[in-house]
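# nightly structure sweep
# worker-07 picked up a monomer target from the shared queue
# config: single-sequence mode, recycle default, output format = structure tokens
# input follows
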Amino acid sequence: MTTVRVAVGSGNPCKIEAVRRAFDQMFSSDDVKIVISSHSVPSGVADQPFGDKETREGAKNRALAAYNAACSEAAENNCLEDMPDFAVGLEGGLDKVVFEKHEELWCMAWMAIIGNNITTCTSAKAEDDEYCAVNGESKSLSWGYAKTGSFLLPPALCDLVLNKNMELGHADDVVFRRVNSKHGSGTVGVLTKGEIDRTEYYVHALKLALIPWIRPQLYFDSSAS
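# output follows
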């Protein structure tokens, strides 16, 4: 049995469950066990990030902080076998777009995954991928990134975010009269009447961020053409 340990840079249950689903599905095997640890770490960016650069940076910061936190905990407990194989950061953001002289807000999120190139991390590689870790255990760290699909926010939410300086989650609670919606179905959930909840919204992007470990020969092997 191969154990894949994944540190998540959030205490948000939606994000934790999204990571669990993505890894379970991509590492789908009776011989692989996914173990998740959560770490409430800062993003290092604004509470409401805008644009791809800031949002992606927030995801990267969370992933790296989660990785370091998980490593520190394993060392403090003298359990080196609990060192993380992967760490994940998820960061929601907004894009400002001017279209036909009207300012719009589009919702999106970035995923960042940091992981080793060891055989454990590449155990889900494609069957036709011929990558082999150096000496079986290359300890170099690599990154994978992906962005969710984006969707247009309604004017009521845009007004609260742009003119009242609210985070999207707080604006969502006001407009839809909910409490702590960002720990529930999220804005995407209420707008799609539950067809796409916040967890499922993240899962596809997390799978895309794992591509380097699915095709490591193309991403990690410098000799690959």
